[in-house]
Amino acid sequence: MNPVNYLYLAALLFTIGATGVLIRKNAIVLFMCVELMLNACNLAFVAFSRMHGNLDGQIIAFFTMVVAAAEVVVGLAIIVSLFRTRHSASVDDASLMKL
Amino acid sequence: MENLIALLIAAPLLGAVVLLCGGRRLDKTGHWLGTLLAAVSFGIGVVLFADMLGRGADDRTLTQNLYTWIPVEGFQADMAFQLDQLSMTFVLLISGVGTLIHVYSIGYMEHDERRRRFFGYLNLFVAAMLLLVLADNYLLLYFGWEGVGLASYLLIGFWQHKPSAATAAKKAFLVNRVGDMGLSIAIMLMFTTFGTFAFGPVFGAVGEASEGKLTAIGLMLLLAACGKSAQVPLQSWLGDAMEGPTPVSALIHAATMVTAGVYLIVRSAAVFNGAPDAQLVVTVVGAVTLLFGAIVGCAKDDIKKALAGSTMSQIGYMILAAGLGPIGYVFAIMHLVTHGFFKAGLFLGAGSVMHGMNDEVDMRKYGGLRKYMPVTFVTFGLGYLAIIGFPGLSGFFSKDMIIEAAFAKGGTEGWILGGVTLLGAGITAFYMTRVMLLTFFGEKRWQPTASDSGSAAGSGHEPHPHESPKSMTVPMVILAFGSVFAGAFFEIGERFLKWLEPVTGYSHGNPPVSAMTVTAATMVMLLVGVGIAWAMYGKRPVPVVAPRGSFLTRAARRDLYQDDFNHVVLVRGGEHLTRSLVYVDHSLVDGVVNGTAASVGGLSGRLRKLQNGYARSYAVSMFGGTAILIAATLLMRAV
Amino acid sequence: MSAVAATATSSGEAVQFWILGTVAVIGALATILMKKAVHSALSLAGTMIILAVFYLANGAYFLGVVQVIVYTGAIMMLFLFVVMLVGVTAADSLKETIKGQRWLAVLCGLGFGILLFAGIGHAGLGQFNGLGRINSAGHVEGLAQLIFTKYVFAFEITGALLITAAVGAMVLTHRERTERAATQRELAERRVRAGVQLPPLPAPGVYARHNAVDVAGLLPDGTPSELTVSKTLRARGQIRDVSSEALDDLKALEQRSAERLGREEASQ
Fold first, then answer.
1. Which of B624, B631, B634 sits opposite C122 (nearest CB)?
2. Which residue spans traverse the membrane (chain A) (predicted)?
3. Which partners does chain A have (≥3 C-beta pairs < 8 Å)?
4. How confident is the model at residue C88, as a pLDDT?
5. Angle B93-B96-B98 from CA coordinates, rounded to 5°
6. Do A65 and C168 touch (CB under 8 A)?
7. Which residues of C touch A34 (CB under 8 A)?
8. Could you tell me the pTM of the whole model?
9. Nearest-CA neighbor of B139 among B53, B235, B71?
């Protein structure tokens, strides 16, 4: 098997995650889809690390995880406060960005 | 000595500032202060005059440069004064007559609670007028020009509670604005042509400019003169300006301010000498106004308006003379000075009559006043004799010189202008005799309820004509002296001619007829005018209510339809122009603008459907965009 | 695993890839298609664990462990926690409300995926060098060397980022109390003034047989009273109706007792 398949898998997972972002209304699920996309990227990084024979890709993936953790913390806090004011976690309810 | 020049202006200016800012605590003393400062100015003028006489004819010009007013590279305007014989003449006239009228106003305005303010305005006027005649460049002259316009506006509308006075003030201001525009354009033209607007450099460089440029400058200066001096076509404001207090009419609208146009033209003699076409227009304007004012003066029953018509006509004489070039400059100024004396005297006399008649102005309701107001009668009568040119009095000399000069212009023009001035002399004799007869002779025609002019004090009571107080009669007497002797004084030994010649130049012209013939013709016209007036108003009783009169009379009563003309041509025309512009604006400009806006709006209305506010919709756009970017990248690499 | 190498992989890894890869894709699809957020979260956790295995297979041992501990352990638990906190809402319905959104999304996804695949297929991916040489000096030591030398600034900055995120989360979720907390006495007075429900709310559960909190207590006529169930369950519509069951039980009981009594009568 060619390790390039890992990249194809990463691309597939990323696409699924992106599509999920577009079709789900629940902000929490939406966030999960974003996490899925990040993980797909991480997989690609790891595969590239193996391809180039150095550890830089893994370091980048490591940083991605840290940033993702920070993002999740803040994002979920936003969802909670949004839920408190709107009593809903639907992204469609916060449709104030229109004329 | 030249340091005194600024003081000439500073004294009345100080008076204006103190009186206008001083508040009510000056109500009791303000008029004395104002009069004193005007007199101080006159005193300084006399000192300077004496000094000037002591020097040679070529060494009489004094200059004083206070400071640089506008110090811009290439655009230098100095706060600088120039006192030569021409300015000196005006200084003495303005401050002298001005002081007399200040004195007169003390009595005339005695019962007016805003007297302090009145004196403040008068002082402001004197200061501005002195600035006008003392300036050594056109920009500073323009400053003074606007200053007298402001003072005139304030004083015409002094009784602002009367709507007619407020309207008249506004009218005077607006009409003057047209003339002022001419002056500003003339100054700009001078600046572009000569690079300066100081008198000396401009007059020195006249020879280098083309005649077309000089003609343009001359015509613009003439427009300015027309506005300020009430010449056709900007004459309409002067009659209404009589709404102001009578001393104002005497000082500003007879003796001094309205002659500023004559001053401007004589001062700019160098420019006009280089532009014969402009000079011709000047003489035409003068001739037309001369007849216009005289005809209007014949029909008015309002004593002040009749005198206003007369003023217009006499200034027409001056403008005409100024348009004749070196032949007439000196006589224009000479007539200006003598006119300043007798017309101011006549106005003061009219004011005295009104003072005694409860502010009645309709001459048909006077009659037989010579018994009640002897001093006024005598002074007014002397002024009358002076203006019609009775032999020996000042008007005789000055007007005669202008008529001679008009003939001396030569050719057909000379005959026409001479004829017009002769005819004017006849009409002058007619309307002034009419005024005299209606006011002082005949039966008394005033009635118990005669006063309907709105004076609160005498309304409903029979007027008791009485002589005015000393403060009013003394200036009238002094001015009467001037009216009688000034002309002869100037004429004996050609003093005035020699005095002014270094400034304005003089040429004798080539008179086609002898001076004696002209004088004789003038006398004949005078006698004819007086005779007709006597036949119409002296022999038979005068009706209190004006008869309908001929067409010409009715036209003249309406100022020869000048206001109607202005209304039809300017107001209506302006309205039509505005309306059509509004139509174009609405249909074309707004059409394009609104069409653009509507199409953009319609397009946006469709585009905004994309802006549904759902984050996920926007995310789809982003995602699609990303896909397109990847496609583009791949495509570029494939290529 | 030290044989992680080269262009081709061992057949063991190939088998592992194809099986676990399929599971990962199924997990991802389940994440976006499951109706309930809890199920989505669990599916995602499964996918992440599989990804951890793939990390290990690619020689990223440290990252694989971190993935399990941090991602699956901490972050996904945080997700679950928030799901529980927020509860079930109407947003969970999969019904699409924006017109054309789903079609567009699927279309974009398909196009994106195809393009991505084409890109990877097109890319000149060189030799896979493998990590054998690098990892031979110690995997974690190698990572540490990079982090604390080449990437030390990025590392420090991520530290700052984490602190900021923690503070931010606290600020976002903190609610300032705008008025004094009501005392017991005030609460009681307020309740009396409102006059809606003076005594404590009735307890849930029926006849000692169904004493779960999601079972509404029955009124004397046998209908369930929603007052007895907690507000959250009521909002989620998670009330279990056992009234008919209870009545059936009652009927059966009466019947049995009647039989018993009848038999006893008969036996007498």
1. B634
2. 6-23, 28-48, 60-83
3. B, C
4. 61
5. 95
6. no
7. none
8. 0.62
9. B71
Asked if A91 lies within 8 A of B615 by C-beta distance, the reply is yes
B366 SS3 class: coil
How many angstroms separate the CA atoms of B517 and B415, rounded? 14
**Closest-CA residue of chain B to A18:** B623
CATH architecture for the domain at A1-86: Orthogonal Bundle (1.10)
With contact defined as beta carbons under 8 Å apart, do B279 and B323 qualify? yes
Report the pLDDT value the prediction gives residue C208, as an integer from 0 to 100: 59
Cα–Cα distance list, C226 to A84, B456, C219, C233 (Å)? 24, 94, 10, 10
Task: Name the residue among A18, A92, A99 with its Cβ closest to that of B608.
Answer: A99
Q: B70 forms bridges with which residues in the sheet?
A: B77
Label residue B283 by pLDDT band (50, 70, 90).
Answer: very high
pLDDT tens readout for residues C98-111: 778 888 899 999 99
Contact B623 C115 (CB under 8 A): no
Question: Under a CB-based contact definition with an 8 Å cutoff, are residues C168 and C180 in contact?
Answer: no
pLDDT of residue C1: 41
> Minimal Cα–Cα distance from B595 to chain A, Å?
23
Mean pLDDT by runs of 10 across the 268 residues of chain C is 53 90 94 88 93 91 91 88 74 72 89 90 75 77 90 93 93 83 88 83 70 77 78 76 75 88 70
Q: Name the helix (H) or strand (E) containing A36.
A: helix A27-52
B608 in contact with A at a CB cutoff of 8 Å?
Answer: yes
Residue C204, amino acid: P
For the residues B328-354, what does the mean pLDDT come to? Answer: 92
CB of B290 within 8 A of CB of B313?
yes
Compute the C-alpha angle B28/B33/B36, nearest 5°. 140
Cα distance between residue B436 and residue B536, in whole Å: 13
Q: What angle do CA C11, C12, C13 make, to 5 degrees?
A: 90
Name the minimum distance, in Å, from the CA of C238 to any CA of chain A. 17
pLDDT at C81: 87
pLDDT tens, position by position, C3-55: 444 456 778 888 999 999 999 999 999 999 888 888 899 999 999 999 999 99
pLDDT for B455: 45
Which residues of C fall within a CB distance of 8 Å from A87?
89
Touching partners of C (3+ C-beta pairs < 8 Å): A, B
Contact yes or no for B435/B349 (Cβ under 8 A): no
Residues of B in contact with C122 (CB under 8 A): 634, 637-638
Can you list the alpha helix ranges (DSSP code H) found in chain C? 11-33, 37-57, 61-66, 76-86, 101-122, 132-135, 139-148, 152-173, 184-194, 231-236, 243-267
Per-residue pLDDT tens over the stretch B587-605:
888 889 889 999 998 998 8
Q: Name the token pair of C245.
A: 């069951």
Nearest residue to B444 via CA among B509, B366, B350: B366
What is the pLDDT averaged over residues B608-626?
Answer: 84
- The span from the CA of A82 to the CA of C121, in Å, is 43
* Residue B286 to residue B408: CA distance in whole angstroms: 16
Nearest Cβ partner for C162 among A16, A39, A66: A66
The DSSP bridge partners found for residue B336 are none
Listed by start position, the domains of chain A span 1-86
Q: Is B493 left (phi over 0), alpha (psi -120 to 50) or beta?
A: left
Reduced 3-state DSSP string for B294-318:
HHHHHHCCEHHHHHHHHHHHHHHHH
Q: State whether B620 and C101 contact (CB < 8 Å).
A: yes
A 10 A CB-CB count for C1 gives 10
3-state secondary structure of B80: strand
**3-state DSSP call for residue B109?**
coil
Structure tokens at B365: 């309701």
